[in-house]
């Protein structure tokens, strides 16, 4: 049954769809919010949600995707695959330039995929492990040759996963220290203009954008407002026009959506399928024992978190695969809220009250409250847990250094387990320095084997059998805690038209947006 808020979101999303029939108007600047302030804006180098949201309007990928995850042309205007499913040929647009005026060519694609992302991007690496070679056959043609057919290959080219970066800027440099990181250069509809740290990030219209008449807007101002109540007030008093997902506290959403000239949609997250998890350090301490990790799952009241902290939005996951991911095993035994079973497991392992450190996700008060709720759940079953709050930079650093016991996060599942799920559990994806790979340090040879086989298995029935088996193992081992499949509404003025036109929502939606004022 839908909650009243879910019903309201559905209704306003339907009414907002009528905007597509109207004649777009040019001009105007949209004021919006980014929360928290991103650590940087170079996609591929940084993959957290705030960076994707802002920089997805600066950078582009070869393709975009509908809300049904069907591919649409972007930097690649067409593509074809060989009969054996191993050779993919992309034909690039010939009228694209980087924001500094240099032409975008096939060499940029080869460099981005084969060099930049292989070094920096765990999501792209999960795809690239199946790629035997990448070749620019001319200035506007790129050929990817796969070792074997790889089912989800065509849905892996979204801008945040396979960002196109300028070879002439990054080749031969230390990528993380490149001066261009302070003034990102992409091919997208908006150009980086200014970043007043702690205040606003300003993007301006790319006057040389290759898509005729786009963008309609003159620019976007991403305001940085640390306090949740102040962000809500900024919308109420007209300072901002758009509240992307996660920018206001969940308890403010019902009130804000009832304001005049306000529309809301939950569309625009289909590609990502955001999935909240609790990292559990598998290397040392109590969290290295799977019985402790199982006890944590039984101790947490995840339904309370959904109903109270998230206003009934989202879904409590059965296990490692969210409902939007393909091949979910519906026969798994769920981890219901069962404090008594949690205590039994702790007694069985001989847990002696050793302190466990819990890192909240520094993305606002809802996440802080969630950490408090989990801390209370764990204490109720006898786990000695201490919260260690930090800012975004500190959170990134602590996870990248594996300096934690339990830590909140959310990752994207990307519609297929080979793209967004396996990266969390493959032992080959254990590497210090990133908070988005196998951060928990889970190693299981059978799981590695099953994930690797399933990625290239054919047909889908064979993939499904392999993925069902791997889920049974993960359900027993509990490498991480599965918290919630997140429901993220976007709130905006109804005179902001065409804001969500793809499966990644506002991350690339401002290209098509216009103001009816």
UniProtKB/TrEMBL annotation:
<dbReference type="InterPro" id="IPR030678">
    <property type="entry name" value="Peptide/Ni-bd"/>
</dbReference>
<keyword id="KW-0732">Signal</keyword>
<dbReference type="InterPro" id="IPR039424">
    <property type="entry name" value="SBP_5"/>
</dbReference>
<dbReference type="GO" id="GO:0030288">
    <property type="term" value="C:outer membrane-bounded periplasmic space"/>
</dbReference>
<dbReference type="GO" id="GO:0043190">
    <property type="term" value="C:ATP-binding cassette (ABC) transporter complex"/>
</dbReference>
<dbReference type="GO" id="GO:0015833">
    <property type="term" value="P:peptide transport"/>
</dbReference>
<feature type="signal peptide">
    <location>
        <begin position="1"/>
        <end position="21"/>
    </location>
</feature>
<feature type="domain" description="Solute-binding protein family 5">
    <location>
        <begin position="70"/>
        <end position="428"/>
    </location>
</feature>
<protein>
    <submittedName>
        <fullName>Peptide/nickel transport system substrate-binding protein</fullName>
    </submittedName>
</protein>
<dbReference type="Pfam" id="PF00496">
    <property type="entry name" value="SBP_bac_5"/>
</dbReference>
<comment type="similarity">
    <text>Belongs to the bacterial solute-binding protein 5 family.</text>
</comment>
<dbReference type="InterPro" id="IPR000914">
    <property type="entry name" value="SBP_5_dom"/>
</dbReference>
<dbReference type="GO" id="GO:1904680">
    <property type="term" value="F:peptide transmembrane transporter activity"/>
</dbReference>
